[in-house]
Amino acid sequence: MSVTWALPFKEKIIPEVGKERAVDPEEYRRIHAESLKDIESFWANVAKELEWFKPWDKVLVADPQPPFYKWFVGGRLNASYLTLDRNVKGGRKNKVAIIWEGEPVDQSGNPLEVRKLTYYDLWREVNRLAYVLKNKFGLKKGDTIGIYMPMIPELPIAMLAAARLGVIFTVVFSGFTAQALADRLNDAEAKLLITADGGYRRGRVIRLKDVVDKALEQSPTVKNVIVYRRVGLNDVNMVRGRDYWWHEVMADVPPNVYVEPEPVESEHPLYILYTSGTTGKPKGIVHDTGGYMVLLHATMKWVFDAREDDIHFCTADIGWVTGHSYIVFGPLLEGMTTIMFEGALDYPNPDRWWAIAERYGATILYTTPTGIRTLMRFGDEWVKKHDLSTIRLMHSVGEPINPEAWRWLWKLVGRERVPFGSTWWMTETGGILISHVPGLALVPLKPGTNGPPLPGVDADVVDDNGNPVPPGTRGYLVIKKPWPGMLLTIWKDPDRYVKTYWSKFPGMFYAGDYAVKDEDGYFWILGRADEVIKVAGHRLGTYELESALIQHPAVAEAAVVGVPDPVKGEVPVAYVVLRQGYQPSEELKRELNNTVRELVGPIATLANVFFVTKLPKTRSGKIMRRLVKAVVTGQPLGDVTTLEDEASVEEVKRAYEEFKAEIEKLKGQQ
Ligand code: PRX
Questions:
Q1: In ligand 1, which atom is closest to the CA atom of 450?
Q2: Side-chain-side CA neighbours of residue 133 (13 Å)
Q3: Alpha helix (H) ranges present in 493-567?
Q4: Rounded to 5 degrees, what angle do the CA atoms 203, 209, 214 make?
Q5: pLDDT tens-digit readout, 47-76
Q6: Which atom of ligand 1 lies at the shortest distance from residue 538's CA?
Q7: CA of 182 to the centre of ligand 1 (A)
Q8: Residue 639: predicted pLDDT
Q9: What is the mean pLDDT of the chain?
Q10: Domain tally for the chain?
Q11: Average pLDDT in the 260-288 region?
């Protein structure tokens, strides 16, 4: 069934900044079509701009067969060398690589801790840690380690030290629970874990090492732990023979020690990053080294227009892919100065990001729609207090951006003159694939759009049969040719890799998103087409939340769906069938929510729990979340021919109506 889509906004804007590169969409389409004629030589030309220890023999190989693609086969390189040594040798030795600001502030709101690490400082620390990993802990190329740290410079230091040795790392977001950490460490078979005693979040200390201790009860592969003293807690449990303080193991290392960067094969995994899917446990997305570096180099140039004097401010957390690619590897690869902020965007006040941007003269801002919508609510004054005139380029990421949020940032921070796009990509793609490319050519901006696909990226929107849909028609986003930076596979689960991404439309990468192309060839990514929801830009599988709910003894069955939220984009609500002997109550709702928060993490907090006696199911017993979602979002039910029992939908409706009536009553009482 084709759905035509009324695009929310038709206005076209050529921003003042960068207008010398303005091209019309027609011209851009020509550039793009040209790049697709021979993607191998196109990407090889980009790859030549990096430094390879050994050049590749073949640009692209399907091995053993599609969709297992390998880029720049035969080539050897090292990500730590490219981001550090190359800059240290290339005239940036004393240039600041990382500006880090800790969360705590003094009484006037000024940061208590700022660290600026030059490329040489960073190089030195990375070498020292690599020395420890290699000589004290015996780690070698191909081993895996976990990293569970707050946003402090030691986090990228750990990533780069691992990369130096060819050790595959997996960063676990420090907001994740012990269970989530243990699952990831086990799947990755991590031999060692690098963590900290704690971190700061909205003025509170988060005791990370306690979480680690709990996780390690279930993670037998982890033999050693390195603990960085971030907070200075004096009651940290250190297990003899297993746990080591960072400062103690580093104390004996000579300050200028040099560890030879391992010349890894282009397809050697740089990292694994776990992300949610529609079924089962989180998927370990595996990224290579060569293709990933090439895509980051291209996107830093085209999308961010990287320049020598840039101060790059990406507001993400390194625990997610955005931080991997656009706080750590991308900016450092280009020899830029990258800002890292430890804490919450509204601590101590909702101008923290603006204060940081002003303090360090940020030139590029890479942020999220949820961040923007959160700050919008506090009013314009918090932005106006700051001089943000250094900012010359902005992009957002992670979820569709609504035109209101776009306009707000464009006006207040972008002064109605700087390019501002919404870059589409995913953990799986490694880097940005659909975006405005002001560093290359500037097509007119349209609030809410993602812009055209990057050169070398063959994106399209197709119908249920895999045929391209006409402009203005909703379909599924696909990528029709491999691209450098693409995931290699799912860690230890190649079948799932094929099934998840390459089976819906054979020969095409299925992203799982709904999209529309407009008459200019711009893409508008509308949201997920599967049972994944995006809460404040974070990706959650409804299945994960349901699995957590049914661990509670009261729950027989559960269906979780995402519903629109004005700030977070989407929030999860649960429909729950109770086991016999349990009664619905507010207390039970709270308990169920706590279960989800404990097992999945605070980002998974349920916005509501509804109790019903049955859920809509197919005749084969599969829960029809689609129908539940249609009820709560007030959409037509669509095809219900496979529904087993229509009364179940009525129940879902009734629970929802009662809830709405309750809210109205409360409003009336106010
Ligand atoms: O639904 C799309 C949405 O985020 C998903 C990928 O999530 P994740 O792997 O966590 O990566 C997020 C950061 C790269 C996509 O399938 N998404 C990402 N960027 C956009 C977006 N939706 C609309 N517009 C975007 N700019």
A1: 26
A2: 32
A3: 494-502, 542-549
A4: 120
A5: 999 999 999 999 999 999 999 999 999 999
A6: 10
A7: 25
A8: 81
A9: 95
A10: 1
A11: 93
Phi, then psi, of 662 in degrees rounded to 5 = -60, -45
Give the model confidence (pLDDT) of 502-516 as tens digits. 999 999 999 999 999
- Pairwise CA distance, residues 465 & 86, whole Å: 48
Q: Three-class SS of residue 100?
A: strand
* Cβ-based neighbour number of residue 94 at 10 Å: 10
Q: What is the pLDDT of residue 659?
A: 80
Parent domain of 662 = 531-669
Ligand 1 binding pocket includes 511 (Cβ within 6 Å): yes
Q: Does any domain span residue 405?
A: no
In a domain, 586, yes or no: yes
Separation of alpha carbons 561 and 520, rounded Å: 34
Question: Could you tell me if the CB of 422 is within 6 A of ligand 1?
Answer: yes
- C-beta neighbour count of 181 within 10 angstroms: 27
Please check whether residue 535 lies inside any domain of the structure.
yes
- Give mean pLDDT, residues 287-298: 98
**Model confidence at 296: pLDDT above 90:** yes
Cβ count within 10 A of residue 640: 13
Q: Is residue 276 lining ligand 1, measured as CB closer than 6 Å?
A: no
Averaged pLDDT, 558-584: 94
The pLDDT of residue 241 is 97
- Output the pLDDT for position 362: 98
Do β-strands 3-4 and 523-528 pair in parallel, antiparallel, or remain unpaired? Answer: unpaired
Centre of ligand 1 to C-alpha 588, Å, is: 33
> Could you give the C-alpha distances from 449 to 397, 429, 506, in angstroms and in order?
11, 19, 28
CATH of the domain at 579: 3.30.300.30
φ, ψ for residue 315, nearest 5 deg: -85, 5
Q: Is residue 590 part of a domain?
A: yes
Better pLDDT: 507 or 621? 507
Measure the CA–CA gap between 41 and 455, rounded to whole angstroms. Answer: 12
Q: What are phi and psi of 480, to 5 degrees?
A: -95, -10
